[in-house]
Amino acid sequence: MVQERRVRVLIDEEKIARRNQEIAVEIAKREPKQLLVVAILKGSFMFAADLMRALHHAGLMPQVEFMHLSSYRDATVSSGQVVILKDIESDVKDRDVLLIDDILESGRTIAFAKDLLAARGARVMTCCLLEKPGKSAVTIKADYVGFTCPDLFVVGYGMDVAHSYRQLPFIGVVET
Ligand code: IMP
Ligand code: MG
Q: Disulfide-capable partner of 107 in 24, 120, 140, 162 (CB 3.0 to 4.6 Å)?
């Protein structure tokens, strides 16, 4: 277990909650039709849950689905290939879909999911909690970004290192 290590707070709960509300208001202004939130597991589960509530407060009635994706970027040869571990169940044709991920780094994960849903006929908006600038390998910009992330490995608020720290209510950096 790595649980004992101290975590330095980078973005606290209040700041996250405020930003979620702002994003929800921006999305509500677009008056999405039959809005379906698609959260990419596992990293975005907490952000998606809070954003769902923020969307409710902004006057929307979103439904939610989960897609579990995995990328082999840590393999010896980084192929950048993304695989579907669990797909969504709903038909997305002609629906407004809000695709949510935790971090946009190379951009491969969100680009893969966006193309897949668009090919099924969805109108896709993308939303990332964090964006790491200058790292993208594919040309994709999220429509909504929570915060710009410094070039550090962050944990908490759904994000992990070796499966730990997802439970933290804030975004932080593990101290070495
Ligand atoms: P990419 O945009 O396809 O490169 O993938 C981004 C994914 O890498 C995110 O969804 C995270 O799962 C993971 N990731 C990238 N940077 C971090 C980090 O700092 N902390 C935790 N996970 C990260
Ligand atoms: Mg992830």
A: 140
E strand or H helix at 3? none
- Crossing angle, helix 45-57 and helix 13-29, to 10 degrees? 60
- The set of residues, in sequence order, having a beta carbon less than 8 Å from that of 10 and lying 6+ positions away, is 150, 152, 154, 170, 171, 172, 173
Average pLDDT of 117-130? 98
Nearest CA residue ID for atom 9, ligand 1: 103
- Residue 125 has a pLDDT of 98
Q: Which domains does the chain have, with CATH numbers?
A: 13-154 (3.40.50.2020)
Nearest CA to ligand 1 atom 14: 103
Mean pLDDT of 115-135: 95
pLDDT in tens, 132-159: 988 777 778 999 999 999 989 999 999 9
